[in-house]
Amino acid sequence: MIELKDVSYSYPNGHNVLDNIDIRIEKGSFITILGDNGSGKSTLIRHINGLLKPSQGVVSVCGMDPASSTDIWKIRQTVGMVFQDPHSQAVGATVEEDVAFGPENLALESDEIRLRVTNAIANVGLECLEDSLLMSLSGGQLQKTAIAGVLAMVPEILIFDEVTSMLDSVSRSQIIDIVRQLNKRGHTVVYVTHHMEEALFADRVIVLENGSITSDGTPRDVFREIYASGRKVPPHLELAFRLQDAGMISPDVFPMDALSLKEEICPSR
Amino acid sequence: MSIEVNGLHFSYGKGKKRLTILKDVTFSVGKGEFVGIIGNVGCGKTTLIKHLNGLLVPVTGNVTVDGLVSSKKEVCRKVGVLFQQPSKQLFCKTVFEDIAYGPSNFGMKGDELEYCVHDAIEKVGISSDILGSSPFSLSGGEMRLVALAGVLSSSPDYLVLDEPTSGLSTFYKERLFRTLELLRQNGVGIVLVSHHLEDVLGVADKIVYLNEGKMVFEGAPEEYLSSLSLPAPEITVLMRGLSSSGLAVRKTVFSVEDAFNEIVGALSEKRG
Fold first, then answer.
1. Phi and psi based region of residue B236 (left: phi greater than 0; alpha: psi -120 to 50; beta: remaining)
2. Distance (Å) from the alpha carbon of B12 to chain A's nearest alpha carbon
3. ipTM
4. Residues B12-36: pLDDT tens digits?
5. What is the pLDDT of residue B219?
6. R_g of chain A computed on alpha carbons
7. pTM reported for the whole predicted model
């Protein structure tokens, strides 16, 4: 469904950001792209909805070419993007107005707009704040509004670019739950983050370093590889790997959080 | 010599529209002391630190810096603030000009200014090769460290950082904490605001926990971890769970290293 073949990208000043990237993403999958600041994550995903065109190579999204001016409008409706700073995506005065902005610009019938807005707001759990002013919302509520705004366009593919980096732990886990639910409902999800613990929920993790893919596999395999190379993994996972290496717990265990690890070490009676 | 916050109340608006942000906050920051201010988004952390260099003035209560009321002009030089979004703190054409902006406004020039800029960029661990680049051509992590260098170039006695690790990768985070540790050793009082518990607990001498504008805890990290009513790091949650299940481990551990040693010790003993 999404394919990047031998994609490279350089800025006009010659700075090379992506180097021969090959990725194939199947419909309905949940992919996390993990990497440090400046690794090329955001540059990569901006090729999927045509915000950037590759300097070399080809991108294909549902058989369309994001670099083509004839396909671009269809691609923008197929691929929804949510960015790091929800303020940069807010356009309406209230939650309802903001979510309705996209469908209104598609010149849809008012009943269809109403239906889309209601469904999108329900999907992120903001029903009780529908008439609230955006300026009165917390960062987490604002980010949920931004997600609803994208959902109202009914995109098949959802791309999330560091959407939790300005949120506290409570809002972060709520946003991750919403993303997981959307994937379960059939959306293809490409989730960009440098928070490793957020990558645990994906089907597949791709690690970018200096514009190149250095790991690509299941969270279990990729995190083992990262740990083996001496780099940081989430604390509960580092502890699990160390206990496995010391023969204290089963080598097959891959705990998703601290409480699952606790059950492996010392099951509740 | 210290920052003293006494009975600080702050609210926006008046009458029925009054929105109270901070309620009776009292704590101090000594020279060379590392204070971590933690709490969820919206609890008043950023409003609180804006009082430490006079950007905001308390409605009631007071804030003094080395005996001076925080609204005094001299306080701006004593207390450097690094805000959450570094792009809002960078505005010059080159990294050099940005870092030089503070000291040149205090009258520094020539070789002294040149030395000061190089010293500041060295302190944050970035190569001086980028001094001629636009700050907006840098990655998010580099921008944050350049903004920090811009604060350090004025040699503040106290450094206040608002969510400095937000959006920062592990590589830049470790570099930032190395810089902060060196500053602390040189007698700079540090106030680090974060909603990432693990970032603060490992480095702070004192924790201030805010909830809905109220200071609900002030004390050492060890005391913080002992309190079951406050949010805990995931490793501490794990250790509490293991202890409740009968494994003889300490419940206040939050680092992987300490947790590993505790668990291996307890399991080895249990399994004989």
1. alpha
2. 14
3. 0.77
4. 877 777 788 999 999 999 999 999 9
5. 95
6. 20
7. 0.78
Angle at A200 between CA A196 and CA A204, to 5 degrees: 105
Interface test with A, best of B45, B166, B234 (most A CBs within 10 A): B234
**Residue A37 in contact with residue B167, Cβ under 8 Å?**
yes
Any CB–CB contact under 8 A between B265 and chain A? Answer: no
Angle of the A169-184 helix axis to the A139-151 helix axis, nearest 10: 20
**Whole-number Å distance between alpha carbons of A165 and A78:** 25
Dist. CA A189–CA A48, nearest whole Å: 12
Q: Which residue would you say has higher pLDDT here, A136 or A203?
A: A203
A16-25 β-sheet, strand order: A16-25, A2-10, A56-61
Q: Which of residues 87 through 116 in chain B touch A, CB cutoff 8 A?
A: none
Q: Mind spelling out the 3-state secondary structure of chain A?
A: CEEEEEEEEECCCCCEEEEEEEEEECCCCEEEEEECCCCCHHHHHCCCCCCCCCCEEEEEECCECCCCCCCHHHHHHHEEEECCCHHHHCCCCEHHHHHHHHHHHCCCCHHHHHHHHHHHHHHCCCHHHCCCEHHHCCHHHHHHHHHHHHHCCCCCEEEEECCCCCCCHHHHHHHHHHHHHHHHCCCEEEEEECCHHHHHHCCEEEEEECCEEEEEECHHHHHHHHHHCCCCCCHHHHHHHHHHHCCCCCCCCCCCCHHHHHHHHCCCC
Cβ neighbours of B44 (radius 10 Å): 22
Are A88 and A163 in contact, with CB atoms under 8 Å apart?
no
Q: What is the mean pLDDT of residues B218-226?
A: 94
Interchain contact B189–A (C-beta under 8 A): no
Most A CBs within 10 A among B136, B175, B256, B269, hence the mutation to make, goes to: B256
Per residue in A223-253, pLDDT tens?
A: 999 999 988 899 999 999 999 999 999 999 9
Mode of pairing for the β-strands spanning A30-35 and A204-209: parallel
Q: Looking at the partner chain, which of B166, B169, B196 has a beta carbon nearest the beta carbon of A36?
A: B169
Check CB contact of A138 with chain B, cutoff 8 Å: yes
Of residues A37, A169, A268, nearest to B245 (C-beta): A268
8 Å CB contact between A168 and A195: no
Q: Is the pLDDT of residue A168 over 80?
A: no
CB within 8 A of B73, min separation 6: which ones?
A: none
Q: State the best of B194, B196, B238 to mutate against chain A, taking most chain A CBs within 10 Å.
A: B238
Of A165, A84, A168, residue with least CA distance to B166: A165
